[in-house]
Design goal:
Blueprint (H helix, E strand, L loop, with lengths): L2 H11 L5 H11 L3 E4 L4 H13 L4 E5 L6 H14 L4 E3 L3 H11 L8 H20 L4 E3 L16 E4 L4 E4 L7 H10 L51
Parallel strand pairs: 1-2, 1-4, 2-3, 4-6
Antiparallel strand pairs: 5-6
């Protein structure tokens, strides 16, 4: 049976289950499972759900080399609270050097193509290494986060990385996330208190104004339908 078929069957089987039930199912039934965490609110809430079920569960993050200081602070706080060490993947050194030679430090502002190339070097290539050998890839994606994610299912086959991707928080809204964080005293990125609903690399993330879309602070110089880096490309 293909991974795509398995994903479709699992999506139907687990439809309507809570995030805790979904996480438990995959941690109990699959060996190679991991959460890719950006250390933003959704991933922090999901990390708590995962680690409460299995203290030894694998969580990894991508250090692009251009993260906010507050992101490192929440990584440290998470390691301390749960007595873990989040796995960290870095970009390939030669690729970064070539990136600077070809498009400079901030070439990503000049075109979608250059921005996506920067994302590839700093995020996609390291993610490919991190996902190698995995059966299940947990993410903190929510359907209501942006126009590019409204149709995402709970379980799907990601052909870009040849892995089954599971989105346990897919039906959560923003209030659900923050209620969980507060009730469970989950460490969170303090940039959220400064108007950053979505957090990525420092040059590509800004605070948003009242009434703006929650993804408006990501790649704000581009149209909404382009606002993905390739990690979760449909």
């Amino acid at each position: 049976m293909s991974k795509e078929t398995i994903a479709k069957e699992l999506n139907q089987q687990l439809k309507g289950k809570t995030a805790q039930e979904v996480v438990a199912y995959f941690l109990d039934n699959y060996k190679e499972v991991a959460l890719s965490s950006s250390l933003a609110a959704e991933d922090q809430a999901l990390s708590d759900v995962i680690l409460k079920h299995d203290k030894s569960a694998r969580i990894f993050t991508l250090d692009t080399g251009r993260l906010h200081p507050e992101t490192y602070d929440v990584m440290d706080a998470t390691n301390l609270k749960y007595n873990i060490k989040i796995d960290v993947y870095f970009p390939n050194e030669q690729n970064v050097q070539e990136l600077y030679k070809t498009q400079g430090v901030n070439g990503h502002y000049e075109s979608i193509e250059k921005r996506k190339h920067c994302c590839f070097v700093r995020k996609i290539e390291p993610l490919k290494r991190a996902l190698k050998g995995l059966d299940i890839w947990f993410t903190g994606l929510r359907a209501s986060q942006s126009v590019t994610r409204t149709e995402m299912p709970l379980v799907e086959y990601d052909a870009n990385f040849d892995v089954i991707k599971v989105n346990p928080l897919i039906d959560w809204n923003e209030e659900d996330v923050w209620t969980y964080i507060k009730e469970n005293r989950v460490p969170y990125n303090k940039l959220h208190d400064q108007g950053f609903p979505s957090i990525g690399c420092a040059p590509c993330t800004r605070a948003v104004k009242d009434g703006e879309d929650i993804r408006a602070g990501r790649w704000w110089w581009e149209n909404p339908e382009h606002k993905e880096c390739g990690l979760h490309k449909k």
